[in-house]
Amino acid sequence: MRHLILSLAFSIGVGAAAAPYAQQTNFGVPVLAIQAAQRQTSVAATWQPLPTPTGKVLEGAPTEAAPFNELIPSWNVTQPGDSSVVMEVRVRRPEGRWTPYFSFGTWRAAGPRASSPVRRTADGTVNTDTLSLPYRSTAFQYRLTLGAGSEVNLLSFNTADTALRLRDLGRAGRASAWNKVLKVPQRSQMIYKGGGEVWCSPTSVSMLLAFWQRPVRVPDAARATFDPVYDGFGNWPFNTAYAATQGMQAAVTRLGSLRDAESYISQGLPLALSIRFKAGELPNSPISFSNGHVMVLIGFDPQGNPVLNDPAARSDAAVQRTYPRAIFERLWLTHSGGMAYVMAPQPGG
Question: What are the backbone dihedrals phi and psi of residue 99, each rounded to the nearest 5 degrees, phi first?
């Protein structure tokens, strides 16, 4: 029955003849606005109840998915003190054999946290936050090892076929979502000397939290997301796991186009997006180039161009920027496959 339900979900919004570029498999109670936005995108999304942990281990059943060669997990956990959570995922190879479990490292809301060192294998490689496969799988299974007192509120897994990431590039947008800009507080990472220049991800999370009336100082968000193995602040699941400690339901997803992103803006949900660009590729950018940069999508101008809070601006007042739609979409999809942080207050929060 689960296989049938998931197969039907693949066809929602993308046509029965075409597999989706990306799929979002969620376990928990959805925020209704997030669920409504998901229904309007090309990304097949399902929601199922969380399983009950057995002792310190929460292990999901094998889950069928559309063909994928990348997987990004997210987790929202309530934890006392420095209690830990270890996320592991395995996948089924094309010949039917299950791989060993891949570790995404150890998360702690307080205390030391770290992703796993990169170790390339014939079964696949976890690079900080993304499991990459040298083949396409159609099933995964997760396992969480929970420290004392840890309680799981949400698990979310984005699977994607990278060969399809540009399939919806240039897809016509929804004019009904244009000329709408959400009032997300503007915050610059560049006003923090001696490190702020690499704080784009926690600064973007700080802006999203402030939008939802959960103010957090940018340096505090940076300290709470630092990954010493990655040696940086841009571990995607660590950023959403941190947002969850502030009362948010937060997950990493991938979208197929800016049309998909318009669905979230229409529901009043700003998004953090990751792009990369070479010198001169992004007009109106406050920096000339970036090997990986996160900023907050807050809406669209009357012509459908994306309006963003770009934390690379030199001051808070200069953060809001409008970028050419076609250029921005291409840079976003090409670099991160349409990565986005999605978050809203937890149900009942």
Answer: -75, 165
Say whether both 180 and 289 belong to one domain: yes
pLDDT at 17: 52
Q: How many C-beta neighbours within 10 Å does residue 95 have?
A: 6
Regarding whether 191 and 336 lie in a shared domain, the answer is yes
Tokens representing 38 are 């998901």
Q: What is the pLDDT of residues 294-330, one digit of tens each?
A: 999 999 999 999 999 999 999 999 999 999 999 999 9
Strands 44-48, 22-28: pairing kind: parallel
Report which of 7, 162, 157 is spatially closest to residue 89, judged by C-alpha positions: 157
For 76, phi then psi, to 5°, come to -120, 120
Tell me the backbone φ, ψ of residue 194, rounded to 5 degrees.
75, 35
State how far the Cα of 80 lies from the Cα of 56, in Å rounded to an integer.
Answer: 15
Of 104, 79, 45, nearest to 340 by C-alpha is 45
Residue 170 lies in a domain: no
Ranges of residues in the chain with a pLDDT under 50 are 1-16
Structural domain span for residue 157? 2-164
Look up residue 165 and give its two tokens: 């990431």
Count CA within 13 A, CB hemisphere, residue 349. Answer: 20
> Are both 208 and 305 inside the same structural domain?
yes
Q: The tokens 């001169």 sit on which residue?
A: 280
Cβ atoms of 278 and 327 closer than 8 Å: no
Residues 264 and 37: beta-carbon distance below 8 Å: yes
Are the CB atoms for 9 and 227 separated by under 8 Å?
Answer: no
Token pair, residue 325, equals 């739609």
Q: Kind and range of the H or E element at 180?
A: strand 180-181
pTM of structure: 0.93
pLDDT digits (tens, 9 = 90+) for 185-213: 999 999 999 899 999 999 999 999 999 99
Query: Helix, strand, coil proportions of the chain in percent (round to 5)?
Result: 25, 35, 40
